[in-house]
Amino acid sequence: MAKRSGKKGKGTRKPTERHTVSLDRILVWSIALFVFAIPLFIWPGITEYGYGKSIITLIAISALSLLWGVSAWRKKGWSIQIPWIIFPVLGFVIASLFSLVSAMNGRVVVQSLVLLVFFFQLLLIISNVIRERKDVNLILFSLLASGFLAGLYGLLQYLGVMRGASIGGSGLGNVISTMGNKNYLGGFLAYILFPAVVLIVRLRSRVLRAASILLIAFSFGMTMVVQQTAVVVSLILAAIAFVIGFAIFRPVEPIRRNRGWLIALGLALVLTFLIEAPSGPLNSVVGLSADGSTWIGRIWAANSGKTRSWDWWVGWEMFKDHPLTGVGLGNYKLNFIPYKAKFLATPRGASYDFYIPRAAQAHNEYVQVVAELGTLGILALISFLVVLPLAVWRRLRRNADEADRLDILLYAAGIVAFLVHALVS
Asked: Which CA distances in Å does 406 have to 91, 234, 246, 249?
């Protein structure tokens, strides 16, 4: 009887290894599905789209965490890389816990803190699971495709083809897309535009590259259509940051290697601007968003600046009353009505003689942090704004590969767009 060989072929794997690899791929595709679906998700019956997205986000991140844990258990070990951003995050957690001291509703603090911790958990999962270039491309393309569909929905609302803010309405006031309003839509598209350019230089498929160019161009056009000055300013400052970074680190080789595709992208963006920007010379021909004024002329008053400044001054009144711990994480909206009355009683508040019923947020992330978390929140915010650029700079200095440097600069430009837009959103 022939003896069975104890050696295994080179191409064979143990069942446990095969299952682990399968779980890893399932986890990667689950993350891609998550980042694609959440921007598009609407919970029927909930008019505040952010609440519905938050509920599903908590459920999805819990499922991703469980899947990550099972994958690690199958590997008989769990090695976790902790990003530097954990220190500012811990600062925010500590400040949030202290804000319970003066919170009107402590349950809201806990609820908001759970959401903050869950988003950091998502960051941990992505930074530890998404390690290969093809997986990064998958996540980026999922975000870009999601942004395209959200933008398309907003465009159809603008044209009156689909229902928006009003039944049978059309025009800019009808645009809410899947985000809740046109400012959120424009901001989301602005955040992903620069990182999405990575797809042009990294993808191997010509079809996917061409598709990425079309999706980027359309998303850029929608940032013009929504006519939000903050969105345009965030893109301009992100572009300036990218140019400065490029001048310092000079990742020329990947641009030279992909110059044909990048030229095609540039031409598509120029053509899109000429057609869709309110100040574009072709806009009056297609009649998409021309209204007799340019986005350059849409200054403070045209962008609800007076209302936003009211929100900010109300936040200042909250900080003055609770300078150390703030009014409590997530408690800005609960305190707005009484502090609105307090602000109107001041000499500065006398000029704010128009009606505003409530404010769910301060329309400025930094003001809201100061109002809700006080001085401790300011320290956490400063640590975040210091650690983040230092981490990016350190990664750029230590990485000699020009293609990687270009990727990092494009990601950093997306972060700049987010930080700038947060000033009014």
From this structure: 31, 20, 8, 9
Tens of pLDDT, residue by residue over 48-92, are: 888 899 999 999 999 999 999 988 888 777 788 888 889 999 999
- Choose among 377, 385, 393: nearest CA to 419: 385
Token pair for 298: 């849409």
Nearest to 108 by CA among 350, 328, 341, 304: 328
- DSSP-derived secondary structure for 142-201: HHHHHHHHHHHHHHHHHTTSS--SSTT--SGGG--TTTSSHHHHHHHHHHHHHHHTHHHH
Distance CA 389, CA 358 (A): 35
Distance separating alpha carbons of residues 34 and 345, to the nearest angstrom: 47
Take residue 362 and report the two structure tokens written for it. 């301060």
SS (H, E, C) 45-56: CCCCHHHHHHHH
For residue 381 the two structure tokens come to: 């915010």
What is d(CA 44, CA 26) in angstroms, rounded to the nearest whole number?
28
CA distance 118 to 61: 7
